[in-house]
Design goal:
Pfam families: Lactonase. By secondary structure, the protein is an all-beta fold. It has 1 helix and 28 strands.
C-alpha cells in the first residue's frame, strides 16, 4: 500500500471538539465521481443535502470504519484505488486523507469488525481481497468462482462469508484478525439452487444467522452459523417476488451477454439486503420493478416470512439503508435524480416522507450517527 489509510484520518478527527449528535448519510455516485453528504433528522425523516465532495472517477462501494472516523471509497477505474476520508465529528464533513491501491475493480467494500482490515470483492476479476488499513503490507487475494459479489466478517470477527454470484455458492472462511488471512471452512462453500445468484449479506446482531439475497431469484436464504466452526447450515428460504410483479427469472449479467441489454424481458434483479436495528425486519431492493420487499425475521429461530413488496419512487434502486433508530429507510436509484427517505412501519410498509437531490447514478449508502462530545 502507498501509505496507511487511517492514521491521517485519525489525527484529523482528533482535532474536532464539542460535537453534537447528528445522523449523516454518505452516498456515492459513479456517474459524476461524487460522494454526497446528507443530514437525516431521525425525529421526522427530513433529508437535506449538506455538500458534495469529489472522490474520483467511478466511485462505487464504500465502507465506514467501526469508530465512525473514516470513510473508505473504492474507485472502479485504473489504477484501481481506495480513497480514505476523515469525518469531522461535528459537521460530518469529509476530508480526503490518503489513497492506496486495490487488487482490482471492486464491487463491494467493508471493514472487519475491529477496523484493522479492508475487505473487498471483485465481480469482474473473480476474487476477494484483504488489506490492512494502518500499515503498508501486501494485499492478500483469494480467487473465487465466477463473480464474487460481497465479503464480510461476522459479528464475532472470527469468520468471513462471501456471495459468489456466478457459482451459486456462499463462501465460508475462518478469519485471522491478526493477519487478515482467510482459511476455507470445510469445502469452503455451501451451495444454493442453480441461478440463485448469491449477492449481498446481512447478519443477525447475535451472530447466529446469516441472510443472503439471490440477485436472480429474488429470494433470501437463511443460514445458521456454527458458533465453533463457522460452518453454515441452511435453515430456510423466502421468496420476495410476488406474482403481480410479472418478472421472469433473472440471469447473470456481464460482458458475455452484453449485460442483458438486448433482452426485453423484465427479469428479477435483486440488489441490496438490510436488517433493521431491532433485527425483526429484513428489506431487499429489486431494481427491475423499482421496489422493496419486506420479510419478518424470527429472532429466536432465524426464520424468515415474506410480508409484502412495496414500490419506491427511485428508479432502479441499488442500495437501501436503515436509519440508526430503524424508523426510516434511505433509497437510491441508479436512474433517479433524487434520494428518498421513507417511514418504515412494523410490517415493512414504506411511506415516502422526504427527498433530496442525488448525484449521477447514485447507489452506495453509508449511514453514521455521530455522538455528542
Amino acid at each position: 500500500m502507498n501509505k496507511p489509510l487511517i492514521l491521517a484520518a485519525a489525527i484529523a478527527c482528533g482535532l474536532g471538539a464539542h460535537a453534537s449528535a447528528a445522523t449523516f448519510a454518505y452516498i456515492s455516485s459513479p456517474g459524476d465521481g461524487l460522494i454526497s453528504q446528507y443530514r437525516l433528522d431521525e425525529s421526522n425523516g427530513a433529508l437535506s443535502l449538506v455538500e458534495q465532495v469529489t472522490a474520483g472517477d467511478q466511485v462505487n462501494p464504500m465502507a465506514l470504519s467501526p469508530d465512525g472516523k473514516t470513510l473508505f471509497a473504492a474507485l472502479r477505474v485504473k489504477p484501481f484505488q481506495v480513497q480514505a476520508f476523515s469525518i469531522d465529528p461535528a459537521s460530518g464533513h469529509l476530508t480526503p486523507t490518503s489513497k492506496a491501491p486495490l487488487a482490482d475493480s471492486m464491487a463491494y467494500l467493508a471493514t472487519d469488525r475491529a477496523g484493522r482490515y479492508l475487505l473487498a470483492a471483485s465481480y469482474g476479476a473473480d476474487l476477494l481481497s484483504v488489506q490492512p488499513v494502518d500499515k503498508a503490507e501486501p494485499i492478500l487475494t483469494y480467487k473465487t468462482g465466477l463473480h464474487a459479489h460481497s465479503l464480510r466478517t461476522d459479528p464475532s470477527n472470527r469468520f468471513a462469508y462471501a456471495g459468489n454470484l456466478g457459482t451459486d455458492h456462499v463462501l465460508q472462511y475462518r478469519f485471522d484478525a491478526n493477519t487478515g488471512a482467510l482459511t476455507p471452512i470445510g469445502t469452503g462453500f455451501v451451495s444454493v439452487p442453480a441461478n440463485t445468484g448469491p449477492r449481498h449479506l446481512a447478519f443477525s446482531a447475535n451472530g447466529k444467522y446469516l441472510y443472503v439475497v439471490g440477485e436472480m431469484s429474488g429470494t433470501v436464504t437463511a443460514f445458521a452459523i456454527d458458533g465453533s466452526t463457522g460452518a453454515l447450515t441452511q435453515i430456510g428460504v423466502a421468496n420476495g417476488i410476488p406474482a403481480r410483479l410479472n418478472l421472469a427469472h433473472g440471469e447473470v449479467r456481464d460482458a458475455r451477454n452484453n449485460d442483458l441489454k438486448d433482452d426485453p424481458t423484465p427479469r428479477i434483479w435483486a440488489a441490496d439486503l438490510r436488517l433493521s436495528p431491532d433485527g425483526k425486519l429484513l428489506l431487499m431492493s429489486e431494481r427491475t420493478s423499482s421496489s422493496v420487499s419486506a420479510f419478518a425475521v424470527d429472532t429466536t429461530t432465524g426464520g424468515l416470512r415474506f410480508l409484502d413488496n412495496y414500490p419506491v419512487a427511485e428508479k432502479q434502486p441499488r442500495n437501501i439503508a436503515f436509519s440508526p433508530n430503524g424508523q426510516w429507510l434511505l433509497v437510491t436509484g441508479e436512474k433517479s435524480d433524487t434520494v428518498g427517505a421513507y417511514a418504515v412501519s412494523a410490517n415493512g410498509a414504506l411511506k415516502r416522507v422526504a427527498q433530496a437531490a442525488s448525484g449521477k447514478g447514485a447507489l452506495w449508502i453509508e449511514v453514521l450517527r455521530t455522538q455528542a462530545q
